[in-house]
């Protein structure tokens, strides 16, 4: 492609921060030692690794020894679900496939969401049973960008724990959140969130792909998904990903440092894009939550339009957006998220997910909106529908 | 450390091939797209990924669609063991901790080995039961370097399969090998090995760490260890490690290309080192197999000597060797491998594992032997033992 690219799919993948790669390179080429080897250059690598874990953990108010490094959010979620033991699990209808697949291995209840994608906390409270051991709700939805009422959910869990204590019931109840989407843009401090476990993914925050972590408070009992040499306190065996962890540390700390200003910056651009599209297409439907929304997410639907045709037309003009989440999009099935928020099929099929990131700026986004608008307009002309 | 380093612990970790890093870099920084995204730059990434898998698979006589990419050998082994289902497992006493830990989750029999570390195939044949579903034997041992009689083991499995067929028994019997150790130095062509499954680790062959694969013949039934978005034919979910797979491809193909000559080169240097040490220390015990041995491995024991003291003295003179496998060494327990081959505790505790690699050459290794010899001699002087 010779067309200059305007990348608006940061929710699917982020480029690696060049400073992260720079920090990783010596661990690839020079201090490549196995951190379990006993000589001092390897012990230094071990220290660097543990310090990187500490720095990562401090970024969200935790300690390095509460963190298990993994090969990404999916593995972290699988590990988090081991805490459910033989218990019942409560999650939502709009979770990532990794959560839904992990939940399917347990007796589980999927709670519905509002048309704005917020989990119905009253229904979540009712879904709890004495045998419920895990509640797993993503901090921000990865298709429409809705932020979830995690504090409320944590309070519901606390009430249930108190009831169990009073009733002499021994089963624990944990709250896990996947906070990967929106990492670097929203507050993920674990004591403010109040959760027991949190999944993060380096690949969503300008860190290396296939690097993630599960933070678990010390009272949470996990079982390893991968057994072996006993690394990560026996919870995740295999030679440690030193370079990847160093890269995650650099990317995360840089992203966290500019979190507030970056969130404000992107929200302003996003709002301007939405306004411009709304002005041109009054029939456009904006999904997600007007109030509780990822600052970089804009999910729009053009009823009667085929989003896949739009996507390819945009691509030919250098604009890259998504029609749904990358995983779901690949399967040619309609998004379970859009179904859950009640979008009619002809609306869902005309949906674009626009997600901004580090290289997004006002000028590029105005250009993108103009290109998107022209493509949508010509599609409406083609199908003869009302805009 | 200002001392020039002579690294002789390639079995624990290898540096990343700079050409592998060069090939990975564009996938970190530029074509960082999610391979599941639908636009053409992402489809190109998907093609690059699948082609890299094909190239990797061709290097050992297989097809890319028989390969599951993982986060390393440990995860691959865990995945291979899902093929055992509810069946019985046979492995050896000297396997890597990952195999032993995975086997512990099943009804299992550990077969003993000879003093040279070869699996006793007669005992292995006797260990098979009608309910045995998996035999897992590493191609080369990671502490002493013994190559295993895999062809014989495959023949034993074939006989048992024939018996089951005749008896109308339906249970399958699979042979898995972890061929990570010695990758790039020994033949790993799967049709010549005759196995049903093979684990490989990029981090042992100058590829990136936390990248590995499980090859499984198409008749093998696996269950995912990590569930989610359904990547890798549903066997291993999570966004694909494109950069890591590209790096593995470059490192593996480069290593395979020079496999024979590199094996000969290192074996010659290794033999010279052994001879020089034997000449100086007649009481030295060489472990591993005189005939079936990894070309880059030299495992030597100096009875009565404290190998940990030796290791630190060597380190201060810039020579890095191992006292046992990196994983086991870190735990302050005696190696299960050295116990299994019948080394007395005072012999085992005086053991060094020397493993050569790409930057090893005759001059450096002669220097290393001289340094090792002086350190051992001064230790013998200290303890007053016979050399």
Structure description:
2 copies of one chain form a homodimer. The first copy, chain A, is built from 14 helices and 12 strands. Chain A has 387 residues and is α/β, with parallel strands linked by helices. Chain A has 2 domains: 134 residues, Aspartate Aminotransferase, domain 1 (Alpha-Beta Complex), CATH 3.90.1150.10; 240 residues, Type I PLP-dependent aspartate aminotransferase-like (Major domain) (Aspartate Aminotransferase, domain 2), CATH 3.40.640. In chain A, the strands form 3 sheets. A 7-stranded mixed β-sheet of chain A has the order 2-8-7-6-5-3-4, with helices on both faces. In chain A, strands 9-10-12 form a 3-stranded antiparallel β-sheet, with helices on one face. At the A-B interface, helix 1, helix 2, helix 3, helix 4 and helix 8 of A face helix 1, helix 2, helix 3, helix 4 and helix 8 of B.
List the helices and strands and how they pair.
Two copies of one chain form a homodimer.
Chain A (H helix, E strand, L loop, with lengths): L5 E2 L10 H12 L10 H19 L8 E4 L2 H9 L6 E5 L4 H7 L4 E4 L9 H7 L4 E5 L13 H18 L6 E5 L11 H4 L3 E5 L10 E5 L25 H16 L1 H22 L4 E3 L9 E5 L5 H10 L2 E2 L5 H4 L6 H5 L4 H4 L2 E5 L6 H22 L4
Parallel strand pairs in A: 1-11, 3-4, 3-5, 5-6, 6-7
Antiparallel strand pairs in A: 2-8, 7-8, 9-10, 10-12
């Amino acid at each position: 492609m010779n067309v200059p690219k305007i990348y608006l799919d940061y929710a699917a993948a982020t480029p690696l921060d060049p400073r992260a790669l720079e920090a990783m390179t010596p661990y690839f080429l020079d201090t490549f030692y196995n951190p379990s080897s006993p000589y001092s250059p390897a012990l230094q690598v071990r220290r660097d690794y543990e310090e990187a874990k500490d720095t990562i953990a401090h970024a969200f108010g935790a300690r390095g020894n509460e963190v298990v490094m993994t090969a990404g959010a999916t593995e972290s979620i699988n590990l988090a679900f081991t805490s459910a033991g033989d218990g019942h699990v409560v999650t939502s209808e709009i979770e990532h496939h990794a959560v839904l697949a992990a939940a399917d291995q347990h007796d589980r209840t999927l709670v519905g969401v509002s048309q704005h994608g917020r989990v119905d906390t009253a229904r979540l409270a009712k879904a709890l049973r004495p045998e419920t051991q895990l509640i797993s709700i993503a901090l921000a939805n990865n298709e429409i960008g809705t932020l979830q009422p995690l504090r409320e959910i944590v309070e519901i869990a606390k009430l249930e724990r108190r009831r169990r204590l009073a009733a002499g019931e021994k089963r624990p109840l944990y709250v896990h959140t996947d906070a990967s989407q929106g990492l670097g843009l929203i507050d993920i401090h674990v004591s403010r969130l109040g959760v027991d476990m949190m999944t993060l993914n380096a690949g969503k925050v300008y860190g290396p792909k296939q690097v993630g972590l599960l933070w678990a408070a010390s009272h949470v009992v996990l079982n390893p998904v991968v057994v072996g040499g006993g690394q990560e306190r026996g919870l995740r065996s295999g030679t440690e990903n030193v370079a990847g962890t160093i890269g995650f540390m650099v990317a995360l700390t840089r992203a966290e440092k500019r979190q507030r200003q970056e969130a404000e910056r992107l929200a302003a651009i996003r709002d301007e894009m939405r306004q411009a599209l709304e002005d041109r297409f009054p029939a456009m439907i904006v999904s997600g939550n007007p109030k509780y929304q990822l600052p970089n997410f804009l999910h729009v639907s053009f009823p009667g339009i085929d989003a896949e045709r739009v996507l390819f037309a945009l691509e030919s003009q250098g604009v890259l957006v998504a029609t749904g989440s990358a995983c779901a999009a690949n399967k040619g099935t309609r998004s379970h998220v859009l179904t859950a928020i009640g979008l009619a099929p002809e609306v869902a099929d005309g949906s674009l997910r626009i997600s901004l990131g580090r290289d997004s700026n006002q000028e590029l986004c105005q250009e993108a909106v103009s290109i998107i608008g022209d493509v949508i307009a010509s599609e409406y002309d083609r199908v003869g529908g009302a805009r």
